[in-house]
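re the bet — no i am not wrong, look at it urself. input seq straight from the record:
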Amino acid sequence: MSVTQLTGRTTADEDVVHLTVPADGGYLSVLRTATAGLAARLQFALDEIEDLRIAVDEACAMLLAIATRDAELECSFAVTEDALTVEVTVPTVRGAKLPAESSFAWKVLTALTTSAAATATDGRATISLLTRRATH
């Protein structure tokens, strides 16, 4: 069982997908594609899928800027009945800081998702994104 940071809900392990890719911009397409596939599985609308892909891309870009050399991005996708939570984590360089919540990058994340959160402790930074499917 896993507990997602943003919802505090427990998800069954079979509802969590873990991907690890090199912390290199060339691999972000893998995470964007996985995001789109899982959101489509939840029957998100096309514009919701695209918003989430952009948000994941932006979160990864924020983390790549503070990642250690030869780091790996660890991405966890938690699927529930009506939501997708994406948590991306990377080891960070000493003294690294995530952009402030007042920054443009952070405004993009919060505009494109239901909620977003970030933590940076013990040499690791995580950005969590929660998107709930719109009710039609």
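see?? The chain has one domain: 15-132. told u. also The longest helix spans residues 46-64. so pay up
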